[in-house]
């Protein structure tokens, strides 16, 4: 079978690695029947892989006991019967590293230990720290009960680790252990006693460590503690499920492994959190720096001169490397020894936005894994990131970038929703999620490098209405639970198939990305995650995305092996015409600037904005002088340049290979490039109607359109085409996805694959145009709202209803179930009709005279009604609306300022319609035939 034939087969029947996945939230021990039913529910909705997550409402003492593991085995057995894939989520709730406290039970010495510091001024004989605050407090009482036994933080086993004396501001640093007479530590504070006063003109900095006696987390920099975590948290899965490892059970998934971040009122200096600490880390620091250790520790806290910043960068490189090898290295070793792949994601400061400091800004993530995302990915077999809310954001691009750094490509994206609408209460989540919103989010992520969305989450239960405490009540534990959304059962499958096929289509593509943005890792180490580089890098990423300029992030270590070819720099298997330095102030050494000079001299455009290099991590501090010599060859901007400059970074491919061009003002977004079978693939998406131009070199060329809605593949109107007539103009309707594969044809032919600029038929396959010879009739009156007998509320009711606004404003503010709008329409004779719903809050299914004629879950809500389902005289028109669950779950909680819209929001329009041709499935991928109640292809099979 050829590569192209294999690709076609996989596109029609995507495998579970490309189909949507889900975190399966368990709130209590599920019965076998529940397990089997919910696994089947996921499968039937197109979710073909899952990870079980025991959430905070699950009794912590029951995690990983025999009953829990038996339930997991039932889930895996059911998944195996359905050819699904299972990943092992490796801890209780989230935050890898505690196994619900099992790892530290009877092993107090393995609990997390942190390094604090106390500054003692000249003349003083003692110093103290108190009021230590856990970052977990921000998550509320439920999270405190999860992280800490008894829900309180208590410290023990205080030790003096280092005693430094600093002469003057940024002066000489000496280690003076004899200066400390003793340490008096309690559960919440510590006092340092000195043997004598601090010398005049000097300051003492005493570093002390303490073990959190109540924490359930292991010390992540203690090798023995990590081994114990694996024994307590990983091995039980091997014992219970090992015969499925390497087949149905495919990978282990870690989630934000880190010690808790602690702060205290007396803390000063550049480091903004206590640091995880262990004697083995201390030994490694001594081995690395020997007698220079005092200077390094002082530089971690203070100093902005190049010499101290250099030491600071060296320290974080060492710390992050040690932490990754100690923790992630051990997890990977265990997973590989058991035939499993390793994946998961670390804490991402950029989640939910573009800037590197979008999230977790009150944590100093340098003392996690040093924010070295490229380094972390070296411990994974599959890249994973998380993404917050329905936003185009940096996470998928970053994930795809680090994957490509390691010779892979594509990333899993854990998608959760956190930010409420205006007027909503923080942490109340997003039960108002619509399928259109979810679909748009997924497609945008795919166009940025996502392979698979992992939805957070699929709920075992929908919680309870007794309280609305976040996290503890499952109903408000990062909602929504997607399966409790009214639109899920009847509509999610189509979205899932489309997402899976889009992912398969893009899998072999080497994207046409011409810009490399240098991830300013060493600048993060010296300036902190809140430095200028955080916002400047976000500004570049956002501006490039909005200008439709493809880019990847690259690591400074990539410069070592970079090759220059015809005015482009090649990193691995990808080449770029431009390299961006976003407020980069620190580089590894002079060798990095020398390589940048070589790139600029070879025709690669080097651009910079914000602060410029002034520090080398290693070697003589000549960065300022070296940059001054390079600056004339660099395009330096005060801020990110305008779109015209960014667009000029794109290679002019139209004469050498197929590419796309987006006209000014068009909302179309795209991803594409050469595939693995001598062709080119392009995926286009438009949230509003727009056009995109396909530019082709001299032909002949063939163009195929691959339909993500139903898996079909076909040639466009012209079998082959020459290019003398200019670009091929493709029109996309609102929310349309178009997938094109272009390859050289065997013979020439005239014509356009879709339309030229002056053609009236630009929609092409996948975006059918309908012409209405008569003005549509507005169906404003005569509607009834019917609720089915089995509804959770308003069961069996029937009432008059207006269609100019939602039912939440018509006496049903708390009802969020499925309901039918019913009306009679009179016809003289059957004729093909078109129903248009101008505004809807929810997904719809349309029936006429009891026959289902179509369904829509995103705009445009336009449904053709075949003549053969109609009859002369009265005809029943029924529009079933499945809204979001918001008004059901937020009613009476005070978590929302007002009810969210539900139902029809504007009068439906009915007109006689003539199709220009039978162009297949409409752009949202739902069926249009009167008796087609399922997808053309509902199978997603492995392989």
Structure description:
The protein is an alpha+beta fold and 943 residues long. It has 19 helices and 50 strands. The strands form 13 sheets. An eight-stranded parallel beta sheet has the order 15-12-3-2-1-18-17-16. A six-stranded antiparallel beta sheet has the order 40-39-41-47-44-45, with no helix packed on it. The chain has a five-stranded antiparallel beta sheet with strand order 8-7-11-4-14. β33 and β34 (713-715) form a beta hairpin. α1 (3-12) runs antiparallel to α13, α5 runs parallel beside α9 and α8 crosses α9 (306-337). The model is unreliable at 719-724, 747-773 and 916-943 (pLDDT under 50).
Rg computed from alpha carbons, rounded to a whole number of angstroms: 30 Å
> In percent terms, what proportion of residues is strand?
25-35%
Kindly state the mean pLDDT as a whole number? Answer: 92
Query: What about the largest sheet?
Result: 8 strands, parallel
Low-pLDDT stretches = 719-724, 747-773, 916-943
